[in-house]
Design a protein that fits this description.
Blueprint lengths: L4 H7 L5 E5 L2 E4 L3 E8 L2 E6 L7 E3 L4 H9 L1
Antiparallel strand pairs: 1-2, 3-4, 4-5
Length: 70
């Protein structure tokens, strides 16, 4: 895409997509599993990338949990 993540974040549906870190936006439907990574972080596993470790930023964990629980 020809957009930065900041630009994409303004045009995507916030109910379906969440920016978990500086370099990653995830779709709620692509999440296979959420694993506790450390006391203040989460590891997100996606359906289409099972071996990829996507770590939720420390400052976004609380907001991410609320988003997932909607």
């Amino acid at each position: 895409v020809d957009y930065s993540l900041d630009q994409l974040q303004k045009i995507i549906d916030p109910d379906k997509f969440f920016r978990i870190s500086r370099n990653c936006i995830v779709n709620i439907n692509a999440i296979r599993d959420i694993i506790s990574y450390s006391s203040s972080r989460l590891n997100v596993k996606l359906n289409n990338q099972p071996n990829e470790d996507l770590i939720v930023s420390k400052d976004k964990v609380s907001e991410f949990k609320k988003w997932v629980d909607k």
